[in-house]
Recover the amino acids of this structure.
């Protein structure tokens, strides 16, 4: 069974939302997103996307939290953030109108589950453009970024500016002083970890391991987390 739920041309390529039954496990139906016919994401393994939220929020004290998610995808990072009762607002910035359209039409499970969530705000924008812009009055307790495959495998060449010390500092201007910046990656990257240490006083690199039965091998995603901007110190708990 293969069902095409939506197919649209985008600035990044041909984007497709589909649902299919696994041949190896017919009882399992997965929803997938492909870009130019290559698999971009699915709802089969979501451990690292969810851990991106829980790992960042665990570093913050007990208070009402404002969270920014860069890249909506199938919504698992935003959904996990909203499970935390401290989160008063979760703002998601998504570059592709097609992905926002899937949510508004309820074309996949997370969209339907969060359709009436009053704490969720969806914005159509380029999150990297937002980071580079002067910050307004709004500051976030956590920024959770899941856009590129990793700091070197970028969906768009212009995204590279974010992964520099200058780019990270610009993004951090949108955080409260003890806020957390967390970035998802398909692979480890020592150079990016070193750049994070130029900007943050506390940096953690976490591996999220799971077995991918589709290719019959262990998969390892990497999460980069930074907190406490150099020159500012940490706000007291």
């Amino acid at each position: 069974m293969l069902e095409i739920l939506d197919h649209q041309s985008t600035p990044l390529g041909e984007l497709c939302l589909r649902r299919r039954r696994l041949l190896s496990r017919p009882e399992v139906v997965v929803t997938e997103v492909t870009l130019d016919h290559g698999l971009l994401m699915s709802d089969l393994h979501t451990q690292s996307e969810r851990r991106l939220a829980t790992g960042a929020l665990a570093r913050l004290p007990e208070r009402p939290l404002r969270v920014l998610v860069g890249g909506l995808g199938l919504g698992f990072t935003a959904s996990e953030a909203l499970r935390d009762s401290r989160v008063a607002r979760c703002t998601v910035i998504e570059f592709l109108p097609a992905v926002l359209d899937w949510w508004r039409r309820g074309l996949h499970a997370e969209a339907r589950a969060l359709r009436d969530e009053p704490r969720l705000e969806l914005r159509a924008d380029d999150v990297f453009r937002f980071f580079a812009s002067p910050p307004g009055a709004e500051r976030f307790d956590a920024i959770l970024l899941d856009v590129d495959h990793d700091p070197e495998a970028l969906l768009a060449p212009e995204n590279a500016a974010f992964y520099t010390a200058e780019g990270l500092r610009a993004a951090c201007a949108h955080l409260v002083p003890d806020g957390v910046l967390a970035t998802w990656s398909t692979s480890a990257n020592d150079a990016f970890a070193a750049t994070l240490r130029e900007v943050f006083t506390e940096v953690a690199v976490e591996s999220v391991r799971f077995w991918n039965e589709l290719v019959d091998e262990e998969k390892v995603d990497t999460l980069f987390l930074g907190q406490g901007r150099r020159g500012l110190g940490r706000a007291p708990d």
